[in-house]
Amino acid sequence: MASQSSLRQSTFWLNESFRAVRTQPFAYTGVVVFSLLASGLLSSLPIVGMLLASLWMPYGAILTGLGARDALSGKTPGYGVLGKAFSDRKLRNQFFTIGILSAIWLEIVSAVFAILGRESLEKWKITAEGIDLESIYANFPTTALVVAFALYVPLLMLTTFSPLLIALNKQPVGKSLFFSFFGVLRNLGPIVLYLVVLLVGATVVTLAVEAFFAAIGLPAAVAFTAPILMCFLSALSQAGVWAMFRDFFGSTRVEG
């Protein structure tokens, strides 16, 4: 079972996240952006997009997780782990199982959202000038969104550490899902605190950047800096997942 961390541990995870990105700012951020772009590109495909994105998810998890491990150990993160993962038949089958489970779960979540939010979504208007924002605000599917999010959270808990537990700790799929879920559950407090601090920090930085460009008369420049901030925030959060995994499941049991 995963070890339990105190709320103060979230500070350590933040420090480790910043250290990973600071040590390898371009290589590690590039790995994270590649993983996110691959997921986004696959999910945008018609009909099979959600399935392909779900099948990619375990590979993206070990790519960014081991990338953070390499960055923290002074190595340059790379993409070789993907080739090894694809060539390992047992690992490939285990990742396929997780991907299928995720795809089915997400289809159910999407169906629930569509059913609960159908009436609100039908009232959204598109005019000649574009989407009518007032119609969206007046008919926002709050209930559907809350229910869908509540259904999605358990899947996130099941799969946050599962790919790393399979690839590194050599756990079977069922056991990895169990340990991932309860690893998150036992440490929910410090995890939530870590995410809150990260998001608050990102919000403060974003507002400060907006204020700076407004002060110098270049408010439109925010559009160019926003993607950079998003990449940086994504890299920090993914590095944090590795720091948590190492704490929860013990670095001495990690192989590879």
Automatic annotation (TrEMBL):
InterPro entries, per the entry: BPSS1780-like (IPR047798)
NCBIfam families: BPSS1780_fam
Superkingdom per UniProt: Bacteria
Protein name: Transmembrane protein
Keywords of the record: Membrane, Transmembrane, Transmembrane helix
Phylogenetic lineage: Bacteria, Pseudomonadati, Pseudomonadota, Betaproteobacteria, Burkholderiales
Chain ranges passing through the membrane: 26-53, 95-116, 136-166, 178-205, 211-236
